[in-house]
User: Which sequence fits this backbone?
């Protein structure tokens, strides 16, 4: 029996909803219809795709494999529809980007500017989430590329590839009055200074902690932030000193009114692009990778 894509769609909805009842409600069909279609699909593939667990249905090992393929099939279907719709208007190149919430947004915007500078029109679709969540979406081709501050962990079973774009020196910034108070005698002047830092899921946080310890400096940690944008908002309000890439000093002044207090010596932030391909073929992603040869870093 050949594979029926309608049956595959019913399977995909049941897997997402966790029950035949909810899937039937979502699809507007009878429970018996969904159950019968699932049975036909399992007959076609020769494997059980679900097993009961309490009141829910959970995927078998074969079901998990089927779901991964179904995710890709239906994502490609959506992309096909969107691509054909774009053809009716004009030639548009789509780029779906995942931006790690720990990556400075000013760096991300500079990299994406490289894609927008291409002669062909590029439509950006950007998602900001935690590293692990974005990595999962990339692995099932829901993203074209990830921009982040760390590579794929060693030993990962995902077939994705890390591309180091570059690295930049980290400095501490603050509003001018606060900066003047702590600039002289830096970094020993930081003892007791109000400090705003990213949380420890940010790759650069551990390096800053080690730097403070190496200099025997003990600032007053005012707050830790999972979101860089919120950290910068507190910095702009004058709540404390905050880290940012030194290369962005002009942008930090323009956007947050903050100036450099001092360089966090030997602490550098690395910037990575992660893709599903070892050799990049998407023109917009190639432009991002080549941005390391411009003034981004």
Assistant:
């Amino acid at each position: 029996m050949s594979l029926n894509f309608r049956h595959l769609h019913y399977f995909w909805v049941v897997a997402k909803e966790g029950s035949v009842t909810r899937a039937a409600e979502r699809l507007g069909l009878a429970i018996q219809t969904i159950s019968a279609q699932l049975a036909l699909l399992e007959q076609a593939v020769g494997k059980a795709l679900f097993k009961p667990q309490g009141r829910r249905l959970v995927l078998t090992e074969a079901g998990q494999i089927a779901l991964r393929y179904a995710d890709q099939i239906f994502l490609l279907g959506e992309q096909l529809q969107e691509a054909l719709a774009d053809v009716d208007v004009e030639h548009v190149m789509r780029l779906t980007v995942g931006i790690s919430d720990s990556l400075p947004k000013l760096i991300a915007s500079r990299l994406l500017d490289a894609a927008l500078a291409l002669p062909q029109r590029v439509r950006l679709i950007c998602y900001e989430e935690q590293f692990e969540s974005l990595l999962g979406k990339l692995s099932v081709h829901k993203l074209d590329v990830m921009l982040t501050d760390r590579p794929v962990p060693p030993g990962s079973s995902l077939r994705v590839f890390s591309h180091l774009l570059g690295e930049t020196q980290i400095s501490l910034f603050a509003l001018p009055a606060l900066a003047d108070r702590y600039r002289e005698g830096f970094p020993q002047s930081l003892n007791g200074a109000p400090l705003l830092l990213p949380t420890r899921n940010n790759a650069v946080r551990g390096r800053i902690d080690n730097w403070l310890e190496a200099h025997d400096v003990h600032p007053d940690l005012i707050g830790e932030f999972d979101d860089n944008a919120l950290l910068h908002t507190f910095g702009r309000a004058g709540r404390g000193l905050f880290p940012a890439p030194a290369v962005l000093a002009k942008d930090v002044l323009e956007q947050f009114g903050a100036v450099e207090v001092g360089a966090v010596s030997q602490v550098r932030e690395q910037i990575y692009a992660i893709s599903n391909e070892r050799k990049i073929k998407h023109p917009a992603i190639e432009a991002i990778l080549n941005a390391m040869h411009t003034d981004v870093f």
The chain has a mean pLDDT of 86. The longest helix spans residues 61-89. The longest strand covers residues 259-275. The two ends are 57 Å apart (CA to CA).
